[in-house]
Each structure stands twice: as C-alpha cells, then as structure tokens.
Amino acid sequence: MGTGAGWGTGWRIPARSGGRLLEMHPHPRGYVCLRASARPGFDGDLGSGEWGKAAWTEDFLDIEGERPARLKTRVKMLWDESFLYVAAEMEEPDVWATYTEHDSVIFHENDFEAFFDPDGDCHGYFEYEVNALGTDWDLRLDKPYRDQGKADNSWEVEGLLKSVTVRGAVNDPAAVCEGWTVVLGFPWSAFRASAPVPGQQWRVNFSRVEWDLEVVEGRYRKIKDRSEHNWVWSSQWAVDMHRPELWGYVQFEESSLAFVPDPDWPDRCRAFEGYWANREGSALQAGMELRDGALWFRSGRIRVREDSLTVRD
C-alpha cells in the first residue's frame, strides 16, 4: 500500500443471474493525488523537491489478480492548474527498447502505459505508451475493443512534458542496469478537460509490459513463443487493459486527505455484470430491468446503456 495515498480492499459482493454466480470484483485501488506548489522535476529524482511530497502507489500486480509483479514497479502523481504529472519507477536489469518511430505499437516491446477516463463513463478514454528510448504512442478510444470500440491514433498529447532516465544503459547486455524512470506531464487540455476541483476523482490505471529476453550475438531478443508479462497498478482480473470499469480511482486534493471509496461500487459491479450478461445473450441479472434502452439497477442510481458500456449516475 502507498504511503498514506493508496487504498484497496478485498471485499466481494456476490450476485446471481440465471442461477450463475457473477464475479464481483474488489474495489479498485485508489490514490490521493496532491496539488504541487511548483512544477516537479523531470531529472528522474523522485525523492526530493515536489516529488518528495508525493506518496508512492502500491507496487504493481499481475494483471489477472493479486500476485506481485516480478520486477518492482510503482508510480507517483501530482497536479497543478496546467498539468497532471505522472512519474513511474521500474526495476529492470535488462533495459531494452528498439522502436524509435512515434505511434509504433510500443507494447510489442517493454514499455510503461497510462490510461485515463476523466468522467468515468468507459467511453472516450485515453491511452499513452512509452519505451526506454522515449518513443511513445498516444491514442484515444471511443469505447472498449470488446464493445466494438475503435482506436483513434490521430489523437496527440499536445504540449506533453516527458523525460526518461535509465539507471544503466539501453540495449547493452554487458551493462549493469538497475532500471528506468519515466516522468510525464499531461496538459489537461489533452484530455478535453479542465483542471479538477479538490475531491474530484478520475478513473485511471497504469500498466507495464515486460517480455522475456535472451542474448544472441551480444544483442537482446525476445524468447520465441513466450507471452508477455502484464503488470498493473490496479488489477484488471483479465489480460485486458480495456476494461475501464475496473481501473483505479485517482482523487485530486490540495492537502493530504483520506481516499474516499466509491459508495456505488457494488451497484456498478452488478450493472456491468448485467450489461455483459445481456450482451452475451444470457438472462438479465436479478435486480435489474431493461427500460428506455438502458439496464437499470433497482436502486435507480446506476444505469448502463443496452448497446454500449457507458455508466451514468
């Protein structure tokens, strides 16, 4: 757990649909993102200055559950009127990256990824990937891929601030490496949003893709027929980052306050399960009804459109 900023719980709420037990996920992790009094540094030093005031997230987990990542990975965040700042620290004995062209499919090599859904409706969300050479890929999705979503690679993070610091050397198997650090500054305008107000929460997650490597003739190479490792801040419970309903919560504050869990999380879980059950042709979840083209939970506080995964309070 982060130093005062992280929050998570293991409780689960069972529900049934057509006699089938639906999986109810634990509340995603949460983080209190403090307002910076000055622009934080981009030199890779995350222990002093403004970064010294920010807490670390919990260490990353395997994407499918609660097993810790093999290599330590964690993030800090800060914000001000102009930017959301993200700093990631990754342990890595073999720093490897070859892509140099912007908007390459970066996750085909080792990378760090950030995902943002400002209004938490699972639509119109943003993805950013970067490797140890600083080559990046930014894209926007109208909705998740499994909901027939399409990626828009024309989206660019105009005004992005970025630095990559390698503790060792890139692409040198003979070098002694400790890891690499990424520091990013995302302008609020890139997300088509204004700076948040204290107490506001965004749905956010972070991912790290790691491939098993071998050394052939003095060069790194992916080991054939091995799948990548996917490590995340808040578990997705499936090898799929494009389930924004399961992303973590980032709460913006001006001072160190406690993270506030989503009081509607149990209802949201049931709504999502009912939505996917309906899309898969099975019976609607108990406690939900189809009305006016939407699935409504019986409390009336959460609805999910019948034809696409959009949550509205």
Helix and strand layout, with pairings?
Layout: E1 6-7, E2 15-17, E3 20-22, E4 30-35, E5 61-62, E6 73-79, E7 83-91, E8 111-117, E9 125-130, E10 136-141, E11 151-152, E12 161-167, E13 179-187, E14 201-210, E15 213-216, E16 219-222, E17 229-232, E18 248-253, H1 265-279, E19 288-291, E20 294-297, E21 303-305, E22 311-312
Describe what this molecule looks like in 3D.
The chain is mainly β and 313 residues long. The chain folds into 2 domains: 6-253, Immunoglobulin-like; 265-312, no CATH class. It has 1 helix and 22 strands. It has one helix spanning 265-279, and strands at residues 6-7, 15-17, 20-22, 30-35, 61-62, 73-79, 83-91, 111-117, 125-130, 136-141, 151-152, 161-167, 179-187, 201-210, 213-216, 219-222, 229-232, 248-253, 288-291, 294-297, 303-305, 311-312. The strands form 4 sheets. Strands 1, 4, 5, 6, 7, 8, 9, 10, 11, 12, 13, 14, 17 and 18 form a 14-stranded mixed beta sheet that branches. Residues 1-22 and 282-286 have low confidence and may be disordered.
Provide tags for this entry:
313 residues; mainly beta; Immunoglobulin-like; 22 strands; globular
Short characterization:
The protein has one helix at 265-279, and strands at 6-7, 15-17, 20-22, 30-35, 61-62, 73-79, 83-91, 111-117, 125-130, 136-141, 151-152, 161-167, 179-187, 201-210, 213-216, 219-222, 229-232, 248-253, 288-291, 294-297, 303-305, 311-312. It is mostly beta strands.
